[in-house]
Specification:
Helix content: 10-25%
Structural class: mainly beta
Largest sheet: 6 strands, antiparallel
Distance between the termini: 33 Å
CATH class: Mainly Beta
Order of helices and strands: EEEEEEH
Shape: globular
CATH topology: SH3 type barrels
Number of helices: 1
Length: about 110
C-alpha cells in the first residue's frame, strides 16, 4: 500500500522537551526527518487561549533532512491534529491550504 504525505507526517517529543512536526521515514533504529519544524505555543490573537506557531528546527543546517536515533525521542505519533498537519504542510511547501493554524487550540 502506498503511503500518502498525510500518513507520513508525525509529531515527535524529544528528550530535550522540544516538540517537532515533520515528514518522516521510520527505520529499525532511526527516524529520518525531512523539513522538521519546531512547534511553538503562543498566545492567541484574542489573548484568551493558545495557538501554535512553527519555526525551522535547525536554522543553520545545510540540509533539510536529518537521521536521528530513536533514543532522542520520548514519544512520537502519526496521529497529528488536522490543523497542525495542514499548517505544517503549508509552511514547508508554500502552498495555501484552506485551513490555517489560527483555529488550533491547545
Amino acid at each position: 500500500m502506498e503511503r500518502t504525505v498525510q500518513e507520513t507526517v508525525g509529531l515527535f517529543k524529544l528528550t530535550t522537551g522540544e516538540e517537532i512536526v515533520s515528514e518522516y521515514i521510520e527505520g529499525e533504529e532511526t527516524f529520518t526527518l525531512t523539513s522538521p519544524r519546531l512547534v511553538i505555543p503562543r498566545r492567541s490573537a484574542d489573548g484568551k487561549g493558545v495557538d501554535v506557531g512553527l519555526a525551522p528546527w535547525f536554522f543553520a543546517a545545510p540540509d533539510d533532512s536529518f537521521v536521528m536515533s530513536r533514543t532522542v525521542f520520548l514519544a512520537w505519533t502519526d496521529n497529528v491534529e488536522k490543523g497542525l498537519r495542514d499548517g505544517y504542510l503549508q509552511n514547508v511547501s508554500g502552498l495555501q491550504i484552506a485551513q490555517n493554524l489560527a483555529g488550533l487550540k491547545l
